[in-house]
Amino acid sequence: MKIRQTQSFILALKKTAKRDRGSIHEALARLEKAEDFMGKRLRYPLDDCRSIRTGSFGQLRIIYQVLPERAKLLLVGERDGYQVYLEAARLLGRSTL
């Protein structure tokens, strides 16, 4: 499957700890090799997105949008307080209410 990284994803990846970048790249390699989409399907307002757990102790989330035959990487960040999900909704211009 084709993967497209957004600017927000690239910036968020640069902010992650170096020890976690290896596991992020491994998860992205698995996603690229997969024939079907990976991760947990998200709910409204991110119902066309999925989340992959990665990082030390699984505290990081890779949020990507499911598009026909490809994935658009939106964000990577800590799940802490659902902030990564709120930020992904903001990037897509969607209300979280």
3D architecture notes:
The radius of gyration is 12 Å and the shape is globular. The chain is of the alpha+beta class and 97 residues long. Strands 1-5-4-3-2 form a 5-stranded mixed beta sheet. The protein has helices spanning 7-15, 18-33, 83-91; strands at 2-5, 40-41, 49-54, 60-67, 70-78. The termini are far apart. The chain is built from 3 helices and 5 strands; from the N terminus they run βααββββα.
Topology, pairings included?
Elements: E1 2-5, H1 7-15, H2 18-33, E2 40-41, E3 49-54, E4 60-67, E5 70-78, H3 83-91
Parallel strand pairs: 1-5
Antiparallel strand pairs: 2-3, 3-4, 4-5
Average of per-residue pLDDT values: 92
What order do the helices and strands follow? EHHEEEEH
Subunit arrangement of the protein: single chain
- Rounded to an integer in angstroms, the radius of gyration calculated over CA atoms is 12 Å
Distance between the termini: 32 Å
Sheet/helix structural class: alpha+beta
Helix content: 25-40%
How many H/I helices? 3
Sum up the overall morphology in one term.
globular
Are there runs of 5+ residues with pLDDT below 50, and where? none
Range of strand content: 25-35%
